[in-house]
Every structure is written in structure tokens, then in C-alpha cells.
């Protein structure tokens, strides 16, 4: 998708948006800086469908007004390829077309406008939010006169987490697309009933009308920041114990749906084919990784299904006094414990931490996990899930950086084609 690639290069994207930012905002403004906050692409392997490809992006921008005052703003939108047959392009309701040429069409909205999250605009307005505060949230905050609202995380059209504070206390408001909050609330309620506030932030209130959940703030340092500071002996044991506690519960099918390994193989092979179509990898590497993944899956026995986090990385843990709290159970699922562990290992090795953690840090994680866990991880299965997580990591880099990520994707997938612990060591 060469026509879409410039929107994944921050300098090029700034060049497209900068001259048009005043039209989008409805007032004069100058673009001083831009970074890509989120990128998601839809691509197709069949040649006849490749012009249906599109890209969703979210940019975090720094703007200056006529007085030179700097303000941050988020802009999100969709980039479509021009279709030769002239079929109409579908844009989100309210999106404004910023760029249209022979190759692409880009339409965008300014946060908090979001067709997929219609409740977001009201929740981002301080006065409107104060009128909507549940009693438990108001009690947690105490002083309501001056509330600051900042974006903690945002995936346009799907979910947004707002950080709300007054200088003395902080709460988090998680907003979901329609009908998605109920199942997530049920998971939190079950876990909270079992563990209390020892392992998870407190669920303060559920607002079904807004598809919203309110949480207390977890006090402490984020584990990703601890790893950046090379505090491996603080972070790894605490993360291991928290994850082992979560895995100690057998999965309840009424709360989460079990994940089939065969489905994961099919999904991984689809991602490999898409990276092959984009010419990030060659036939030989694609075939070698895909065949190895399928053969090992057939040879490794299935293990007992446990409750899994589903989106494990160091940023999902907060450290305080030698213990860790687990955050963000939105992707909770059921499956083999090795899947969560592999996600964590691969993220730790490839996340932008400023350094690569030593092998001893991963060994500490696994040793402490085994000490606390109901059952020890199976080494062959852990290696297999690490292979799977490496494929997912390469594919996400492709999503985020496009062809700029070609060399990195090949390096990651070469590791995925390795044998045994070479996969993650």
C-alpha cells in the first residue's frame, strides 16, 4: 500500500496536515509538532481487493495560536486508496475531508468528536462531567471545583481512557463502544470479589447509559518505567506474582470465551501472508515460520485452560511496596498460561525501553512465576507461544510503521523461525 505509507511517516503526515489544520479546527493555528499515537490498517492479500485497503490513524499534535501559546490536540481519521471503479469511500460521520488526490483520500475529526464513541464529547467537558459523576466517584475525588481531564489512552472508535484529577486525588474513566462495557464490568466485579483491592484497581461505578466504567487510581510506579530504569529486581518478581495470582483462577465460560490454539495458528498465518503481500518478507521466511508453527502445534498436548489477561505487557502493571497491581482487563480471555507469559517476554524484549533487558531478568520472571503459580509453564509450549507473539509483534510494527519496519519485521520473524529457546533468548 505505497499510497498509504506517507501517513505513517510523521514528517510527511505533518506536511499534509499542517497547511490544512486551520480548516479542520475552524480557527487559525500553526502545527508545531506531530507524533503518531495509533495506527491500524486493513489490507488484503487478493490482488483484486488491494485498492480496498485503508488506514486509520490518530495523531497527537502540538499547535500554536496567534499569541504563540502551545496546546496539544488529537486528530484521528481514515486514509482510503482511490478506487479505480469509482465506488464511494466511507468516512465516519462528521469527518472532514482534508486531502483528496489521484491516489488517496484523507478525512479526519478533532478529538473528542468520535462517531464510534458518541458519549466521549460530553465526558471530556468538565462542566458536563461534573453533572454526571456517580456518588462513589465524587467521594473518591472529594474536591470537584477544578477537575483536570487528560487522555491516558485512546483507540478511535473503540475505547478511550480519561485521567481525571484535582491535584489531590485521581480516578480513571474508561469509555467503550456501545454494548462493550457490560462484559468487562462483569470480569472486574468477579475479580474484585475474590481479590479485593490487593491486585486490581477498585471499580468505583458502572454507567451503562454511557458504556463507561470508573476506577480508582493504582498508586505506585508503572512497571514499564521501572524496566526503563533497569530496576529488574523490583519489577520482575512483582509482575510474576501478580500474573500467577490471575492465572490461579480457572476460566469461567460465562465471563470469558476460551481461545482455540488452532484459531491462533490460522490468524498468525494470515498475518504472515499479509506481510508477504506487502513485500516485508520473502516466501522462504514466510513458509518456514508458518510450517514450524503448525507442526509444533500438532505435536504439543493441550493444557488446562486458565483465566488470562490477554494483552500482557509491562505497562499493564503498577508497582508499589514490592507488589504489583494488574491493569486493563479489557482483553481478558481463557487459555494456556504460556500465552500470557510469551506476550510479556516478547514485549519486554522488543519494547522501546532504552535497553534490552538481560537474559537473567527473563529467567527471574519465569523462576518467580513458577514459585507462585498453580502449575509451572511448559517449556515447549512457552517457546511455541513466543513464536506466535513474535509474529504478532512483527505485524503490529507493520501496522504502525509500514514499509519503514521491513528490516525490523524480518529480524523478528527470523527469530520466530529459530529453534527452542532461540525464539526468545
What can you tell me about this protein's structure?
With 425 residues, the chain is an alpha+beta fold. It is 39% helix and 23% strand. It is built from 14 helices and 15 strands. It has helices at residues 10-17, 21-25, 120-124, 126-132, 135-141, 181-195, 223-228, 232-247, 261-277, 283-299, 337-350, 359-372, 379-401, 406-416; strands at residues 30-42, 54-64, 70-81, 96-100, 104-110, 148-155, 159-165, 170-176, 203-207, 212-216, 221-222, 306-308, 317-320, 323-326, 333-335. The strands form four sheets. The chain has a five-stranded antiparallel sheet. Strands 6-7-8-10-9 form a five-stranded antiparallel sheet, sandwiched between helices. The protein has a three-stranded antiparallel sheet with strand order 11-13-14. A hairpin with a 4-residue loop joins strand 9 and strand 10. Helix 9 (261-277) runs antiparallel to helix 10 (283-299), helix 9 (261-277) runs parallel beside helix 13 and helix 13 runs antiparallel to helix 14. The radius of gyration is 23 Å and the shape is globular. The relative contact order is 0.09.
